[in-house]
Each structure stands twice: as structure tokens, then as C-alpha cells.
Write a structure and sequence with these properties.
It comes from Escallonia rubra. It is built from 7 helices and 41 strands. It is of the alpha+beta class. The protein folds into 3 domains: about 180 residues, Bulb-type lectin domain (Agglutinin, subunit A, Orthogonal Prism); about 120 residues, no CATH class; about 210 residues, Transferase(Phosphotransferase), domain 1. The two termini are about 35 Å apart.
Length: about 600
């Protein structure tokens, strides 16, 4: 890495402006060395090559870094055979050229350099900012032709290389050290160092936006489906003011976005409807239909299962305009009519939550039919319950497997269950529950890694203790199937065939926390920033379970084995089979003791 500045303190640490092995981090005691063949090689502590300049055979004799931050390798003729300027990361330094095919890629966060969703690339002398999607979505056009930005402490400008039309050069007109950076939030900012202190002096992408859009025209400003208005985030509401179609992912952090109350299903397109959002638009408008009316725009979305929303843009008449249908919905933004040259209206597709009420002319006859139907249904249900009771009394001691079969079939009657897998599918995904794929286990069974037929990696929990694990199984399926939070392990589905009961969770590539805090050398210990992040993630997950759910859920078994980590060391809570539901007015809970129930690990 390269750093710049003159005086650093703990409050003003050096800044990383380039990294060789950005997406392949190394452990402590790694080595950087020149090989006899002329390569500069970075080897991890176990000897594996993490990064190389691939300059073998080019007579490498030396290395230096200049004041602009360019790391260079020289041959015997003092010619540059490799330089970091040819391998941009997320930072663009003065004197550095950006060519077609090269990209600036933002980091996932300020502390993790793994690739984030934002990138900036060159095309026909123009710079374009994208967020990853299928296909990528454009959210910013940096400049057209030469671009110059001036501010009171200096200026910079971007010019096309006259000898190469596919290259743009960044130059600075200030004596202070300056650089451009694509930040994790998607902003493309100008940073400048004055006496060792870094400060932002310009934000390029917002330069051409109106004041009311500066805080809103970024894809993740308010998360998925969030509507940004003067920097504030809200969720879409129905045409009749109904706020129940979407809910905030975290009401304390509205910027995290919104989720659908009822997930869209292509199996029931007759229950799709469009929420009309007047004066709301999207950061990207790519016309799909031109010279069309608003109804044709709406019909095109309703008849296309993959369409999640459509944006209609017109001048003075709604009868003629353009239609855009983005492939994925990130943040939307509220606009003022006088601030833009077009009129916008956005239609978001949602799933109807209930059937439409009957018309007044049929209301009386339908009421009679419903009354008679309810009476007959009550008789049928009563007879069915009596039948189940008699059957239960007959088989409870002598025919346990048959009881399990009835219980399995009764799962079909449970509402809001996640996807149901067959036993054979999960057996194939885990290669017949191969012991080499075992990820761990607890008091109720073992967890195996697996891959579904569509390539999705999953963790399959097989419940072995049938008699004791029944309540736990139902608790996990019913509670976790309807709970979604960024710090809770997502339940993807379950299996209930005969005596087989399994749970299918999202796969967490870094495993459980105990593998990182126990039985590890000091070189492999987690950094404090990662530990702090994990602590906050756990707290957020517990706060959601204990305070924010409609029904309070007490986890009762917090330990490192039940805290899982993804590839970015984001922590998520698992094992809701030991959860206990409470009404919000309850202050105490009594439950049967089993296993480690009620346990809070000291670590």
C-alpha cells in the first residue's frame, strides 16, 4: 500500500490509496520479495502467492515510489516495466491515466477493501458510474469532454489524451496533495491534504444535480424500495394510503430500505397491482417504450413477471411519454416539478394482501353464503378434530411413526411456511450427508454444507432427536420463516417427510464465531475493528428479536457456536429452535429447561 501525508496521529491516521492484493488479504508475517526471475512477489505466511507483478524476464533491478503515489519497477535501462498507476483500485491520483477497460471499484465499506457494488469506467471519453445489477445500472455521468472543477483551495481537471482517444488524464492545479476516490456510498469525491489533514473539497457526481436531489440521487441512499425526499427515507404506501405493502427493514435506520410485506409471486399474477407514486422517479431512466401512454406502460409491467416497477416520464400530457422498467429496484427519489424538465410517476408492483370486498349489490347474498359456509365448515372441523383425537389416543403408544406421518401432513395447513424441499433433494445436495461436509452440530442434530441443483450453497440442519426436537422444529419453521433481518440467519426452507425433519439455511462461508476466537494462534486473531463489528451485529440482531418483532422472541442460547459469519465477517444469529415467543405485555417467561437453554456465553 502507499500512504501520503506529513504528520499522523491516532485521530489522523494515514490513508491507503493503493493496494496490490486488495481482494486477497494476507495474514501477518507474510513476505514481499524480488525473485531471481525478476518478479515482485507477495507470499502469505503459508508460502502461497497472494500477488505478483508478473514481470519475469524483464531485467528488473529496482523499485521506487514518487510523490504522486505511483509505485514503479525499473529495468537496467531505467525504464518503467511495471507501475501501480496501470492497476487502479478505488483511487485516482494526479498524473494517472484511466483507459477504456479499466475501472475504479469502490470498497464494500471504509474498513473492508473487498469489492463493493459501485464502479466507474471510461467510454468514448466519458466517465460513467454504475451499481452492480443484471445488467449494471447507470447512476452518474461524470463529464462530457474536458471537465474542470474549481474550489477556493485549488482545482483539478480531466482531459482526454490527444494521442489516445480512449484515455483520460487527471491533473491537479494545487500545490497540496489531492486525489479522487470512489467511496463505498457511491460518491465520487475530491480529497485534499493540507498539513497532514485530509478533507473533502468537491463531490463530482452531485455537481450537476439540483439542491433537492443532491442527497437522494444515489442507489443505496434509502436502500431497496426506499423513497428519498430531502435526505429523509420512507417506504411506499398504497394508492388509498395503506402503509402495509412495505415495511422498513429497521425502523431505527430508515436508510437500510424497505421489504415487501407479501412477496411477489409469478404463480398468481391475477393478484398483482401497481402502487402509483406521483412525482417519484428513479436515479436511472432508460426508455424501454417510447411515444406511449401511461396505461400501456402499466400493462407492459403487469404482463411481465420479472418487472418490479415502471417509471413513466412525460411533458404536459399523460397521453404521450416514455416508459422505463429497471431490472432491480434500489432507492427511489421524490422530486419537485419545478426542479426538473419532465413529469414523473412511478408504479411499483406489489402482491394483493386480500381479496377485494364484494360490491354492494352482492353483499347481502354473500353474507348469507358465508354464514352457511362457516357453519358447515365448523361442523367439518369439529368432526376432523374428534377423528384426530381418537386416532391419537389409539396410536400414541403403539404406532409412533404413523403419528409422525399425520403431523407431517398437517404442516400443509400451517400458514406462511417457507419453501418445502424433498428429502431426496437435500440428500443429493449434501452428497448423502457426507461426514466430510459436516459443518457442526448441537443438541438436536448435525449441520451439513450442501449445494442445491440451481448452484445455491446452503447449510442443512438434520434433526436427529425426533421426540425432543418436534417443538423446536415447529418453532424454527414458523418464526424464522417470517422473520427477515440483516443480522439473523435466513431460513430458506425445510423438509418434513415421514420421520425426516430438516432445516435449510443460507450458507455462511466463515463459519461460527467459536472457530475464530478459540484454538487460534495470535497471528490469526480477529482485529479489533472486526470484533467491534461482530459485537454490534449481535446486538442489532438481539434488539430486533427482543424489541422490534410483533411478537417478542427471546433467544435463550447466545454462544459463539450460534453466531455465524459471512465472507465479510458480518455476524448473524442462528438457532431459533430454542426461542421463546412472548406477548409484548409479558415481563417474565417460563420455559422447559433443556440443553443449553437460557445460556449466555461469558465470551
Amino acid at each position: 500500500m502507499a500512504t501520503v501525508g506529513s504528520t499522523f496521529t491516532t485521530e489522523n491516521p494515514p490513508k491507503i490509496i493503493w493496494s496490490a492484493n486488495r481482494f486477497n488479504p494476507i495474514k501477518r508475517n507474510a513476505t514481499l520479495q524480488f525473485t531471481s526471475e525478476g518478479d515482485l512477489v507477495l507470499r502469505d505466511v503459508d508460502g502461497t502467492v497472494a500477488w505478483s507483478t508478473n514481470t519475469s524476464g524483464k531485467s528488473l533491478i529496482g523499485m521506487s515510489i514518487n510523490l504522486a503515489g505511483n509505485l514503479m519497477l525499473y529495468d537496467s535501462n531505467n525504464s518503467i516495466i511495471w507501475q501501480s498507476f496501470d492497476h487502479p483500485t478505488n483511487t485516482w491520483l494526479p498524473g494517472q491515466q484511466l483507459s477504456s477497460g479499466q475501472r475504479l471499484i469502490a470498497s464494500a465499506s471504509t474498513t473492508y477493501w473487498t469489492a463493493g457494488p459501485f464502479s466507474l469506467s471510461l467510454s468514448n471519453r466519458d466517465l460513467y458510474a454504475f451499481i452492480e445489477a443484471t445488467p449494471p445500472q447507470l447512476y452518474g455521468h461524470v463529464f462530457h469532454g474536458d471537465h474542470r472543477s474549481r474550489f477556493k483551495s485549488g482545482s483539478f481537471f480531466l482531459t482526454s489524451n490527444k494521442s489516445n482517444s480512449d484515455t483520460v488524464l487527471y491533473e491537479s492545479e494545487t500545490s497540496n496533495f489531492q486525489y479522487l476516490k470512489l467511496d463505498p456510498d457511491g460518491h465520487f469525491r475530491v480529497y485534499q491534504w493540507v498539513e497532514g489533514v485530509e478533507g473533502v473539497v468537491d463531490d463530482i457526481l452531485t455537481g450537476n444535480l439540483g439542491d433537492n436531489l443532491i442527497d437522494c440521487a444515489y442507489p443505496l441512499r434509502c436502500g431497496n424500495y426506499g423513497i428519498c425526499s430531502d435526505g429523509q427515507c420512507t417506504c411506499p404506501i398504497g394508492n388509498d394510503g395503506d402503509p402495509n405493502y412495505f415495511r422498513q427493514l429497521d425502523f431505527r435506520q430508515p436508510s437500510l430500505g424497505c421489504v415487501e410485506a407479501t412477496q411477489l409471486s409469478c404463480q398468481s399474477p391475477d393478484r398483482h397491482l401497481l402502487l402509483e407514486l406521483d412525482n417519484v422517479t428513479y436515479f436511472e431512466f432508460v426508455p424501454i417504450l417510447a411515444y406511449t401512454d401511461v396505461q400501456s406502460c402499466k400493462d407492459a409491467c403487469l404482463t411481465n413477471c420479472s418487472c418490479r416497477a415502471t417509471v413513466y416520464r412525460h411533458n404536459s400530457s399523460m397521453s404521450m411519454g416514455e416508459c422505463s422498467m429497471p431490472s432491480k429496484i434500489y432507492s427511489l427519489m421524490n422530486i419537485q416539478k419545478q426542479a426538473v424538465s419532465y413529469n414523473y410517476v412511478t408504479f411499483i408492483k406489489v402482491q394483493k394482501q386480500s381479496a377485494s370486498p364484494p360490491t354492494s349489490s352482492k353483499r347481502k347474498s354473500n353474507l348469507i353464503s358465508l354464514t352457511v359456509g362457516a357453519f358447515l365448515a365448523a361442523i367439518v372441523v369439529l368432526a376432523f378434530l374428534i377423528f384426530l383425537y381418537v386416532r391419537f389416543k389409539r396410536h400414541v403408544l403403539e404406532d409412533r411413526p404413523n403419528e409422525d406421518g399425520e403431523w407431517e401432513n398437517s404442516l400443509v395447513l400451517l400458514p406462511d411456511l417457507p419453501k418445502r424441499f424433498s428429502y431426496e433433494d437435500l440428500k443429493s445436495a449434501t452428497q448423502n450427508f457426507d461426514v466430510n461436509k459436516r459443518l457442526g452440530g448441537g443438541g438436536f442434530g448435525s449441520v451439513f454444507g450442501g449445494t442445491l441443483s440451481d448452484g445455491t450453497r446452503v447449510a442443512v440442519k438434520r434433526l436427529d432427536r425426533l421426540g425432543q426436537g418436534r417443538k423446536e422444529f415447529l418453532a424454527e419453521v414458523q418464526t424464522m420463516g417470517n422473520i427477515h433481518h440483516i443480522n439473523l440467519v435466513k431460513l430458506l426452507g425445510f423438509c418434513a417427510e415421514r420421520l425426516h425433519r430438516l432445516l435449510v439455511y443460507e450458507y455462511m462461508s466463515c463459519g461460527s464465531l467459536d472457530k475464530w476466537i478459540f484454538h487460534r494462534t495470535s497471528e490469526d486473531a480477529l482485529e479489533w475493528t472486526i470484533r467491534k463489528k461482530i459485537i454490534l451485529n449481535i446486538a442489532k440482531g438481539l434488539a430486533y428479536l427482543h424489541e422490534e418483532c410483533k411478537s417478542r422472541i427471546i433467544h435463550l442460547d447466545i454462544k459463539p457456536q450460534n453466531i455465524l459469519l459471512d465472507e465479510n465477517f458480518n455476524a448473524k444469529l442462528s438457532d431459533f429452535g430454542l426461542a421463546k415467543l412472548m406477548d409484548r405485555d409479558q415481563s417474565q417467561v417460563m420455559t422447559q429447561m433443556r440443553g443449553t437453554l437460557g445460556y449466555l456465553a461469558p465470551e
